[in-house]
Write a structure and sequence with these properties.
Elements: H1 3-15, H2 18-24, H3 29-43, E1 48-49, E2 56-57, H4 59-89, E3 91-96, H5 98-103, H6 105-113, E4 120-125, H7 128-136, E5 142-147, E6 160-174, E7 194-198, H8 204-214, E8 222-227, H9 231-239, E9 245-248, H10 253-257, E10 262-263, E11 271-280, H11 286-297, E12 303-304
Parallel strand pairs: 3-4, 3-5, 7-8
Antiparallel strand pairs: 1-2, 5-11, 6-9, 6-10, 6-11, 6-12
Helix pairs in contact: 1-2, 1-3, 1-4, 2-3
Length: 306
């Protein structure tokens, strides 16, 4: 018995017309009639009274109609549950900082998908504190974050493993002035402090900025004019000429290329960061293990942990 026969019968029970049901089921009327006959042969009873117009269901047809309708509902419900479970089992839960989620993650996932492997991911863009909490509490499979040796992420190496999956430069940038030079330049002066579009000091990029300033050849004179945790917001403020900001290079690639932003300091005002992926060793979800094996097999990223 083909499940299509049941669907055909339910259509016929609804329309009471062979021609309309055949059209709805996208088959010819003779083929549709043969399928109804085949169903009746399988059931062992006539389901349709063909002597009346419009046609009616026999007593057996009415009984079968109720049972068939409920059975299909149950089958579809179970199939949907199984599909949802399969999708959930194959869906990676990823947390990443806002700028990484916007500028790095899409290209990275595209690169992983080259060759036919499909990466299904549910992305949560959040700050580093919430990302670490999600990883430690088992609410995410993979944590993507910036890393610098002087700004370590305090995760127990006996419980968590990491891979370096990329690199990023944090650059000071400013919109151009009317003459095409940077509107805001480092280090600034007491008579003309440089307007700074800053991160909160408690955020990771805020600590990166403090680290750059601490290692700079001269103490900059800065006047904070705007503050936000989100690098994307600071980028927009910088493009609109509201001040200088330290931003991830990937995030501002197009603005640098078309001249809407200019570098506002040399290499001594920059900092190179790693991009790392962290996982909990006790998390053995198949989708995570498969991705980790794929990442570990590549030549580029060194790995650490178990």
């Amino acid at each position: 018995m083909d499940i299509k026969w049941i669907e055909d019968f339910l259509s016929l029970a609804a329309t009471r017309n062979f021609s309309r049901s055949a059209e709805h089921r996208n088959v010819t009327q003779p083929a549709f009639s043969r399928r109804i006959r085949a169903l009746e042969a399988w059931v062992g009873a006539e389901l349709v009274d063909r002597s009346s117009y419009p046609l009616t269901l026999t007593d057996a047809g009415k009984l079968f109609n109720d049972a068939a309708s409920e059975s299909l509902k149950l089958l579809n419900s179970v199939c949907n549950q199984l599909r949802s479970k399969q999708i959930a089992d194959n869906m990676l839960r990823v947390t990443a900082g806002h700028s990484l989620a916007l500028s790095f993650l899409p290209e990275w996932l595209d690169q992983l998908s080259v060759g036919g492997s499909v990466i299904n991911a549910r992305i949560s863009a959040t700050n580093i504190h919430d990302s670490v909490m999600a990883l430690s509490e088992g609410e995410c499979d993979l944590l993507l974050c910036f890393y610098h040796p002087q700004l370590p992420l305090l995760l127990n190496p006996d419980q968590y493993a990491w891979l370096t999956i990329g690199n990023e430069r944090i650059l000071p940038v400013s919109a151009p002035d009317r003459n095409g030079a940077t509107a805001f330049q480092l280090p600034g002066s007491k008579s003309k402090p440089t307007r700074l579009l800053a991160y909160p000091s408690t955020s990771f990029l805020g600590r990166v900025t403090d680290l750059i300033i601490a290692g700079a050849p001269a103490t900059p004179v800065l006047n904070i004019s705007y503050e936000s945790e989100m690098a994307e917001l600071l980028k927009r403020m910088a493009v609109n000429g509201h001040g200088l900001s330290w931003l991830p290079e990937r995030l501002i690639r197009s603005e640098l290329d078309d001249g809407r932003l200019l570098r506002a300091g040399g290499e001594q005002w920059q900092l190179n960061l790693e991009i790392r992926a962290f996982r909990a060793l006790q998390n053995r979800r198949p989708a995570l293990n498969s991705l980790w094996e794929q990442l570990s097999a590549t030549d580029a990223p060194p790995k650490h942990g178990r």
